[in-house]
Design goal:
Elements: H1 13-24, E1 29-36, H2 60-63, H3 76-88, E2 93-99, E3 109-110, E4 115-116, E5 126-127, E6 129-130, H4 133-152, E7 157-162, H5 167-172, H6 187-190, H7 192-205, E8 210-218, H8 227-237, E9 243-248, H9 270-279, E10 284-287, H10 294-302, E11 308-309, H11 313-317, H12 321-326, H13 344-347, H14 364-367, E12 381-385, H15 389-400, E13 404-409, H16 417-421, H17 431-443, E14 447-450, H18 458-468, E15 472-475, E16 479-481, E17 502-504, E18 518-523, H19 529-538, E19 543-547, H20 555-559, H21 563-572, E20 576-578, E21 581-586, E22 590-595, E23 598-606, E24 610-614, E25 617-619, H22 622-627, E26 633-636, H23 647-660
Parallel strand pairs: 1-2, 2-7, 3-6, 7-8, 8-9, 9-10, 10-11, 12-13, 12-15, 13-14, 15-26, 17-24, 18-19, 18-24, 19-20
Antiparallel strand pairs: 4-5, 16-25, 21-22, 22-23
Helix pairs in contact: 1-3, 4-7, 8-9, 15-17, 15-23, 19-21
Amino acid sequence: MFASDDRNNLPGETLAYYCAERARGGAALVEVSLAMVTPGGGNTSTDVDSQFDPLCVGHPMALSGRWPIRGFDPKVVEGYSRLAKAVHAHGGKCFVEIQSVGTNQANFSGVSKFPWPTHPIHTLPFTSRELDKSEIEQEIEAYGVAAKFAKEGGLDGIDLHGSHGTLICEFLSGAMNKRKDEYGGSIENRARFVEQVIKRVREFTKNEIAVAMRLDGDERFVGGNTPEVAAEIAKRLDGSIDMVTVDQGISPQQEDWQATPMYVESGYNLRLSSPVKSALTKTKMGVVGKYLDPVYAESLLSSGLADMVAMTRALIADPELPNKAMDGRLEDIRPCIGVLQDCWGRMIRGLPISCTVNPVVSREKDWGMSVDYKPVEKPKKILVIGAGVAGLELARVASSRGHRVVVYEKSKEPGGQALLAARLPGRENIRAIVNWLLVQIKKLHVEVKYGLEVTSEEDVVSYVLQEEKPDVVVIATGSYPIRTGFQPYTFNEVSGWNQKNVFTDFDAFDSSLDLGKKVIIGDTLSFIEAPGIAEYLAKKGKEVHIVTPLDNIGLELNLLNHWDHLLPRVFAADVQIHPFTWIKNIGDRAVTLYNFYYHEKETLMEDVDSVIFTTGKLQNDSLYSAFKGKVPELYLIGDAKIGGARIGNAIYDGQKIGREI
């Protein structure tokens, strides 16, 4: 999911450490995605000159120089060699996924002529040019060369990317392949390109490395390939490839199905892989599709539904998952919570991946298992105020290093805002990371004292210091929502915000409050708060309207593959969305809205019972000033430091400071 440290699109040291960490943790096979077999064109090209093309909008991943890998460049062999040695040192095998991009990934030539629309990341509009036969031969040759470089670098196999709109996918597609020659029409003709690619790869590698393939089992278009068609294709390829995996979706239209968020069940691709498995007699069947539970994965193997189970996000969250599972330490496996914010979300922006629950990712050289937590020479007494995920993570890491940690929490339950996030429909799994942290700190004998609120009064601070006598105090008290409707689009509060019928996102879950029947949510965050609360309230029978000055809700979530899964839930709940709209005034039972770009156009919405603002959060950091100068070491972490930050920011803060104390 990332490649280069030097931003030259060649495998670097960070990638090698990342893969070694997964092999050390017990993974039998580690696959790197992905390497280009040609420089290509458009926005996934690793050719710098192509970035000057007038049609190029500049895909962040390609512009960063970190991704994709220049699989066609002889210099890649050195990077592959480093990668192979790192994985082999721990008994694992290593593959690289290789591809040539199709039109759908912004290459200007493809299987057929197609008019492609504007996409905020991938491309400006253009109509592709159909590859002629000499160009097809060049593409086939390029696959062979790229596979040869993988073999020369010591890798154990290559995986032909035949899904998500790659060139192989386009040729196989019933919807995209409109050719009239021997490469189009029947399944036999559409499969000709990949069959020739496989043959060339075998020739160039002398059949000395494994050849796998990713197949698109559901193109999700009318006339596109279905699981039954995928099974026919697999039957043709049976024995010519060593392993096949099946997933779904075309890029960029259906990236929401390439890496799915928490709304989608584990094993969602089984309906695609099962028909393919039945068609195979020689080729092994691997399954992909959000496999997180090793017990479930093992059941697929024992039942014969799969010969291999691929776990990407699960091993991002916890690279030791295989070893922990084999040791029976299931409760110690750090759970993936499926938010996609720091894995896919960072990758799609051209950044090295990390993990919301595991900030060690991409920092394996300095923080990984080979380094682990450095024991302290002189243990300290640490008082953590606040048992949200930032405070709990710091307690876990610091106590792992030998410090004595005590945590104060003012409520009766730990988890902070993560618990509120977990109350949104479909996002219950967020609670899993809180539960995991509690299990870990219990094993480390961290003491958590509930129902203890520390205020900033001098006598309270003095009492706490006298009672605990800490060497270190950590303020992890989180943040609180902005109640006034202030936001950076008008730089003003909303008139009428101080009325009794105005609430915040925190209030939405308070059963003691009466929000009434008709609710307006004023949203400028464009994240999960507004759509999640809207769905929650609408399912309770309320009429819910979301107003936002932006062009849609959940804009950040579009980059996190949520829209295909979240928006149908919102619309099914009959939530009304008002884009380009903001609130001018809140009255007792009426709210005046206006068009954000044409202020003269106003709308009076009557019979409104309540208004909820989701416009941001402010740091709850008063204790930092209260303790400053009164304790040898003082730290401010999580939302108390950066109001409104994500769970990943909070856990990273806890991890980092926990290592440094």
